[in-house]
């Protein structure tokens, strides 16, 4: 006789235990994912925040105009430093090599702007006082539009820059002659 009431109770208890185990596993997985993202600086916004005083950006520190653009680092990666301000980006055209780890460091000199490289996963807000950090890698040479994606007052529609990805060897040849590169003509 399998249709005995106690059999039903046993089945229900077993099912409940199974589902409880699944629920605990899902929670453990989510907690693990949050820990992984935190350790690898992959959360948005990032847990470790760097600051930059918007009122003195142009006077001293990392974001003075002479330090903006793309810089080749000793480890072979490229750091791109940029500023957004009403209503343009500096540099207006960012130069990037192919097959290279690109670390973008950008901030705003006035209000909140957005930095978006169309067709890529690069998409971050530029908040005055804070440094937005995002990394990327481009496989092929090409050109991308970089519009401001955060409404920043009446000139917002006209605020956009460009990203030009060039062959790595070409970039390295240029980097050997000049410390900060851009494609602003
Ligand atoms: Cu800057 Cu919208």
Structural overview:
With 185 residues, the chain is α+β, with helices and mostly antiparallel strands. It has two domains: 1-44; 50-177, Cupredoxins -  blue copper proteins (Immunoglobulin-like, Sandwich), CATH 2.60.40.420. It contains two helices and eleven strands. The strands form three sheets. Strands 1, 2, 3, 4, 6 and 9 form a six-stranded mixed sheet that branches. The protein has a three-stranded mixed sheet with strand order 5-11-10. A hairpin with a 6-residue loop joins β7 and β8. The chain is elongated. The mean pLDDT is 91. Residues 84, 87, 113, 148, 150-152, 156, 159 line the site of dinuclear copper ion.
Estimate the mean pLDDT confidence. Answer: 91
Write the CATH homologous superfamily of the largest domain: Cupredoxins -  blue copper proteins
- Envelope shape: elongated
Q: According to CATH, what is the topology of the largest domain?
A: Immunoglobulin-like
Q: Work out the number of β strands.
A: 11
Class of secondary structure makeup = alpha+beta
Count of domain modules? 2
Name of the CATH architecture of the largest domain: Sandwich
Q: How big a fraction of the residues is strand?
A: 25-35%
What are the low-pLDDT stretches, counting only 5+ consecutive residues below 50?
Answer: none
CATH class identity of the largest domain: Mainly Beta
Bound molecules: dinuclear copper ion
């Amino acid at each position: 006789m399998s249709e005995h009431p106690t059999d039903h109770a046993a089945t229900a208890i077993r099912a409940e235990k199974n589902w409880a185990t699944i629920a605990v596993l899902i929670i453990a997985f989510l907690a693990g994912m949050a820990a992984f993202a935190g350790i690898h600086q992959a959360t948005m916004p990032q847990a470790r925040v760097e600051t930059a005083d918007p009122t003195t950006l142009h006077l001293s520190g990392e974001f003075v105009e002479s330090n903006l653009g793309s810089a080749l680092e000793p480890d072979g990666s490229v750091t791109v430093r940029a500023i957004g301000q009403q209503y343009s980006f500096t540099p207006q055209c960012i130069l990037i090599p192919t097959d290279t780890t690109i670390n973008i460091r950008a901030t705003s000199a006035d209000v909140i702007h957005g930095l978006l490289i169309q067709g890529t996963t690069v998409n971050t807000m530029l908040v005055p006082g804070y440094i937005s950090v995002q990394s990327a890698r481009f496989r092929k040479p090409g050109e991308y539009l970089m519009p401001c994606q955060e409404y920043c007052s009446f000139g917002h529609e006209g605020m956009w820059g460009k990203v030009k990805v060039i062959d790595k060897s070409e970039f390295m040849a240029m980097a050997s002659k000049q410390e900060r590169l851009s494609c602003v003509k």
